[in-house]
């Protein structure tokens, strides 16, 4: 069996105030699969994603994750920085010192992957919320990300765009062999997942079959 794309072992994280967020948290996401991370407000989902992305450092425990990692935020306006679609996707490639032809090739390919090639000259302000999220994903694809970490990417979308986005990420994972971990409170999105984790007070208390987790959560609590 190949190594998982994400492996977290006994991860512990506290804020400087001493508040414990993750307590010996362990999980694995197999390569080429689309997993979701569920849990009540404050259970540590965003903190875990930031640790996985290397934006925070744990006090103890081990993180193994395939590189490069792409991060997609809840609010795309916190992520898209350039005036137009094409320029924004190209911006993420600055550090790679590619030739202009290589940059435009990568940008075109990434926009095609999210079905937005026709919008490459469009100003960012003239995009819908769902289109903005797809541009953020195109940025990660242009950088050849192996793993996508998505923190409630659908939270600001209407139900149709929400389902378009989750379906698109599922297709990208399957067609390109990527691995994705998607944080959500919306249980209907679980239909698209290969598996899911349930986080409670910084511990993974359940994991596995999305249908079973969905049924459990529908019975027990409002997320
Ligand atoms: N920068 C910070 N400094 C101190 N405490 C923080 C910081 N960010 C988050 N916290 C606290 O850490 C805990 C976990 O927060 P986190 O954002 O990971 O939860 P979450 O599961 O993503 O919640 P939500 O569903 O509301 O997004 C919470 O108690 C939160 O108040
Ligand atoms: Mg969060």
Chain-wise SSE layout:
Blueprint: E1 6-14, E2 20-29, E3 34-39, H1 45-52, E4 60-65, E5 69-72, H2 85-91, H3 100-113, H4 129-142, E6 147-151, H5 159-176, E7 179-183, E8 195-200, E9 203-208, H6 210-220
Parallel strand pairs: 3-7, 3-8, 5-6, 6-7
Antiparallel strand pairs: 1-2, 1-4, 8-9
Helix pairs in contact: 2-4, 3-4, 4-5
Magnesium ion is lined by residues 45-46, 151.
General description of the model:
The chain has 2 domains: 1-67 and 146-223, 3-Layer(aba) Sandwich (Rossmann fold), CATH 3.40.50.300; 76-145, no CATH class. It is 32% helix and 26% strand. It has helices at 45-52, 85-91, 100-113, 129-142, 159-176, 210-220; strands at residues 6-14, 20-29, 34-39, 60-65, 69-72, 147-151, 179-183, 195-200, 203-208. The strands form 2 sheets. A 6-stranded mixed β-sheet has the order 5-6-7-3-8-9, sandwiched between helices. It has a 3-stranded antiparallel β-sheet with strand order 2-1-4, covered by helices on one side. Helix 2 packs parallel to helix 4 (129-142) and helix 4 (129-142) packs parallel to helix 5. The longest helix is centred in the last third of the chain and has 18 residues, at 159-176. Magnesium ion binds next to helix 1.
